[in-house]
Amino acid sequence: MKDLRRYLVLKYIQYLVLSSSNAVSTFLGLLGSLYTTIILQSANVSAKSTAVLISSLAKADILVVLEMVTWTFGDLISSTAFTPALLQNLLTANTHISCLLLSCVAFEAYLITFFPTESRHLRTVRNARLTSRIIWVLVTAECTLLQMDDLLKASSTYAPNRSPYVLWFHFSSTVTVLLRSLSYFLGILLRIVNVYIYYKIFFSMSNR
């Protein structure tokens, strides 16, 4: 459990403390995710909802690996217009999934600390798996829309006078702007909520 706590601290620093990822934090995060995945396969780790969320968090770094592979072989497998957008959207998906899962872990810690008995029916493995799936589906849909918008922008010069195309282009651009704005404000809100949760937990444990 100490190793899992260290991994969570590392991920909180990587996604909720640092303003942007860097090579060092990304590399340490990948190593931590690999090590955590191995630990979670051990019979000594009980199958609880927290373990399910942490497992899904570790799996999110697969997107970083895909980003590295795409960056390395992008010129061979795709056009120059497609690759940069895909690289950014893979990193965006990884960041959003990780932030949401970390917030779920924080919320569960809050329930365990203040409502251990009342929240027991919520803190189940089934609910944790369902929550993880919903997060993955929502973020995948978001990044798919972002990727489509990037492709439309890249190809807009080839069909600038076609009315249906222009209407779809403007609709896609509007949706993308709204998504980016929502993601930005949600990211700020999650940082505030996480700080508040751990502030409450810390002082609660100190008083005891």
Low-confidence stretches: none
Q: Based on DSSP secondary structure assignment, what is the total number of beta strands?
A: 0
Order of helices and strands: HHHHHHH
Overall tally of domains: 1
Q: Given the structure, what is the number of helices?
A: 7
Mean model confidence by pLDDT: 84
Structure description:
The protein is mainly α. It has one domain (about 1-205). The protein is about 80% helix and about 0% strand. The chain has 7 helices and no strands. It has helices at about 1-15, 25-40, 50-60, 60-75, 80-115, 125-155, 165-205. Helix 5 (about 80-115) packs parallel to helix 7. It starts with a helix and ends with a helix. The mean pLDDT is about 85.
Brief summary of the model shown:
One of its GO terms (biological process) is phospholipase C-activating G protein-coupled receptor signaling pathway. This protein is an all-alpha fold and 208 residues long.
SSE layout and pairing:
Elements lengths: L1 H16 L5 H18 L8 H11 L2 H16 L4 H33 L10 H31 L7 H45 L1
Keywords:
7 helices, 208 residues, mainly alpha, single chain, globular
